[in-house]
Write the structure tokens for this entry.
Amino acid sequence: DQMVEISLQSKMLTREFLLPVSDGILIGRGPNNTISIDNPDVVEHQCRIFRNGSQLCVESLSMDHPTELQRGARSIQVSGKPMALTGGDIICFGDNRLLLKF
């Protein structure tokens, strides 16, 4: 199973994770997420990272609190359908940034 290194960065802290992608990685404020973030700017289920064939993808799970993808100088809102991730992408929501290595 593919493992993903995730660095969660916010104003207050940085946390590091090494997680398998097999069942998807659920991120949000709720305690039942794979990565739980205690921050009022984050919704119960913010986004999900998962495998779609050979691609690693991110999908936003909140319409009210958007998830954005920082790709170089471009900022892309993730909404409606999953987006394929590429090396160097940064997932942003609120004042949180997820840096991924895969």
User: Anything to note?
Assistant: The CA atoms of residues 43 and 64 lie 9 Å apart. The mean pLDDT is 93. The chain has no helices and eleven strands. The first strand starts at residue 3 and ends at 9.
